[in-house]
Design a protein that fits this description.
alpha/beta, single chain, 24% strand, binds uridine 5'-triphosphate, two-stranded antiparallel ribbon, nine-stranded mixed beta sheet, globular
């Protein structure tokens, strides 16, 4: 690839049309992506990360019952004016800034037919260019931000780039797993990938996390695949099909991933985020001491 032709990604797709069954009953009425992590929804943390990576346009794929995502990222004059009238300027500015973080676009997935199908719903926004894909459940803490890390690999090698992490063997069946050849420390050329393999059948323990840089060629492959694991249209199947035509790389994530899609992970994420804040840190440590439980 000629590096002078390289254009960094500026669009990121956030699939947010899933049912969130692992977090029921909380997600009966609140989209999983809108569950709070400290003082803002999980998906706001992800948007901040994408913006920090230099992205200007965010495409949310939403479904029925997900209207609060659009409301949250829209301008909300009434409450901002009310806050200002009451002299609460700092919080008013914070609330008023949300709709300016990026250009927000919305695509509808009528039925949650799988992650592959959700990505296909965003085709109209990304059909001609490489784009970022961020699964909101995974809140990623890293410097540089993770999409920048992946885009740096694309700049060097070209093709699509997946974000991977080594997981314990007992956990491979929860993830998409790559079969790959290391081309330099922490960077892999992907030979194949398989969704949620049994431990005995997993080609490695390198699990795909919720961040990707994807070639627009994916859309042709998303249209070709059949329903896969769990009866859903799987993104991994489309990537496996695409890599016969175009290279796919994977980069070992350097940073901390907080899996907010399950309650155990969400609790851990809340504690980790609270411990990062000097004031909240005191509260967490004080509460643990006071409880006498430890
Ligand atoms: P998950 O499988 O983690 O989310 O999909 P889910 O289906 O909502 O949750 P569970 O498994 O039932 O608990 C990863 C991301 O992809 C989105 C989800 O909203 C989530 O952010 N997704 C998944 C879609 O947008 N559409 C789908 O058809 C499936």
């Amino acid at each position: 690839m000629n590096s002078s032709e390289f254009t960094p990604i500026n669009k990121v797709v956030f699939p947010a049309a899933g049912l969130g069954t692992r977090f029921l009953p909380a997600t009966k009425d609140i989209p999983k992506e809108m569950m709070p992590l400290i003082d803002r929804p999980i998906i706001h943390h992800d948007v901040d990360e994408a913006v920090a990576s230099g992205c200007s346009d965010i495409v949310f794929v939403t479904g029925i019952g997900k209207e609060s995502i659009k409301n949250y990222f829209s301008q909300f004059r009434d409450i901002v004016d009310l806050l200002r009238e009451r002299g609460k300027y700092e919080i008013a500015d914070l609330v008023d800034k949300i709709h300016t973080l990026a250009n927000f676009h919305y695509a509808m997935q009528e039925k949650p037919l799988g992650l592959g199908h959700a990505v296909l719903c965003a085709e109209g926004f990304c059909k001609d260019e490489y784009f970022g894909l961020a699964l909101p459940d995974d809140v990623m803490i890293s410097n540089p931000p993770v999409l920048s890390q992946l885009d740096a690999v694309r700049k060097k090698y070209g093709g699509s780039v997946l974000c991977v992490e080594a997981v314990p063997e007992d956990e491979v069946s929860r993830y998409g797993i790559i079969d790959a050849e290391e081309v330099e420390p922490g960077i892999y050329r992907v030979k194949d990938l398989v969704e949620k393999p049994a431990k005995e059948e997993a080609p490695s323990n390198l699990a795909i996390l919720g961040r990707y840089i994807i070639s627009p060629l994916i859309f042709a492959h998303l249209k070709k695949i059949k329903r896969g694991a769990g009866g859903e249209y799987q993104l991994t199947d489309a990537i496996a099909s695409m890599l016969k035509e175009e290279p796919v790389y994977a980069a070992l994530f350097t940073g901390k991933r907080l899996d907010c899609g399950v309650k155990e992970g969400w609790i851990e994420a809340t504690v980790v985020k609270a411990l990062e804040d000097p004031e909240l840190r005191k509260i967490v440590i004080g509460a643990v001491k006071k409880s006498g439980l430890l």
